[in-house]
Amino acid sequence: MNNLRLTVDRDALVRNWQALDRLSGSARAGAAIKADGYGLGASRSLQALQAAGCQDFFVAHWEEAAGLAGDAGQSSLSVLHGIGPADMELANSLAAVPVLNTADQVARWKALGGGTCHVMFDTGMNRLGLAMADIGNGLLDGLDIDICMSHLASADEDSAQNTLQLARFLDIRQGVKARRYSLANSAGIMLGSDYHFDLTRPGLALYGGVPRADMQPHIETVASLEARLMQLRTVPAGDSIGYGATFVARRDMRVGVVSLGYADGFQRSLSGQGVSLRHGDADLPLLGRISMDLVCIDLGNAPHLAEGDWVTLPLDLLALEAASGIAQYEQLTHLGQRFERVWR
Ligand SMILES: *Cc1c(COP(=O)(O)O)cnc(C)c1O
Q1: Catalytic residue among 38, 110, 177, 243
Q2: Would the pTM of this model clear 0.90, i.e. be above it?
């Protein structure tokens, strides 16, 4: 696309991982790169983080692992969804390692010859994972388990559920033999060293998300949306802008029409929330509703801009969440397909 770019700051991604690795204390930080690296690019995220020393990567589906097989090299690439009945062929042909979640998945893995695997236990989220009752009942006998893990449901809050899940995970660690144990996602890293075990599994925070306020000083913005001005116009006082005429100019205004809309993941509910695009240091407030392919901005702070010039939205996910209520995770995973993805 000539008029729409998603730029990713590789060094900022790496610094975020390094910060999370440091915050993980004696544990190592891995990286969740599912959903195409939360929309920013799984392959390039893997390559950048691998070069920085990250050794453990997580995707949800085998198809995602297949797309990364050429990049993974000596790193461990894990498939969180385990092995469903439809996954046998891919699981058999790839070096990626399944995270086994059910007795049937354990049986499928054994049918494929076993080999190193991971296991997920459910400690109260009631999503994927084996039950506490599966500890010591023989189900896992004969498996070569690298990572034994569980997943926190409420780590972004100081919730009693965290303590409960930790207590259950400690019981799991007593009863399940594995080389490594892993509990914390991004937010869980901030819950302290009790939650770190051998490996943490951050996703969101790598890409600039801030799931807990106490993480904010450690995390940088990684991605920006950039779009060109398609048209400039002077809107006279009293005229309205955009669908529904939700904005009415109180004075004559210099207005830019930008080639970015909700089809690109710049969600409509960001309209009217005080969000601005930028050009250099200039703040360029949105005017009226975001439409599918376009949005209007106030050029009062950058009157020199011309048709074809670029304007930017840094993906400060926490600020955008505060403005719109759209979860940081969704802001990333809803990014559209029309961006040229540029890594710098
Ligand atoms: C997605 C995911 C993560 C990463 O979570 P974030 O909240 O993005 O840090 C870690 N572990 C599991 C099992 C996941 O599904």
Answers
A1: 243
A2: yes
